[in-house]
Amino acid sequence: MLALLGLVGAGLAHAQPKSDWERAQESREFDEGEVVTPPFPKEDTLIEFVPSINNPFRFYIDGATLTTSAQGVVRFVLVAVSPSGVRSVSFEGIRCATGESRVYAYGRNDNNTWSNARNSRWREIEPRQVARQTKSLQREFFCPRGIPIRSREEGINALRRGIHPDADAPRN
Length: 172
Prior knowledge:
Elements (H helix, E strand, L loop, with lengths): L1 H13 L5 H10 L16 E4 L8 E5 L4 E2 L4 E9 L5 E9 L4 E9 L4 E4 L6 E2 L8 H10 L9 H10 L11
Antiparallel strand pairs: 1-2, 2-4, 3-4, 4-5, 5-6, 6-7, 6-8
């Protein structure tokens, strides 16, 4: 019985939120490896998704660029289209385990090339930040319950379905 209580207690201790120091230590120890910028998105590989936020923009993920690394980073090309038709293209990543995101590069629509993001570093995904579509991608599509998708197909299926079957996020 004491052994069982010890196991339960160990599980509860593990469930506690991490301190700022613990998160900083994890970031210092994290080795992302080499990140290669993908080809520029093509119209026929874009998959529209609707974030659980009110936003006049339309959002797409380039299914051909969706990957999950061995380090638990989900990478993708995000295309946002304003109501007037202006396109914004970015190559981004989400660290599911830590709830952080990063922009690696921005797309240049005039010549379909990439421009590296300056001062790119991992940042906490906050629910009230301006670009809340990243939080939606994290919770509802690519990192349900903090666990990264296992494959491109799993992510594409979640996008097409409108939410990952393991997601516990409410839809607005």
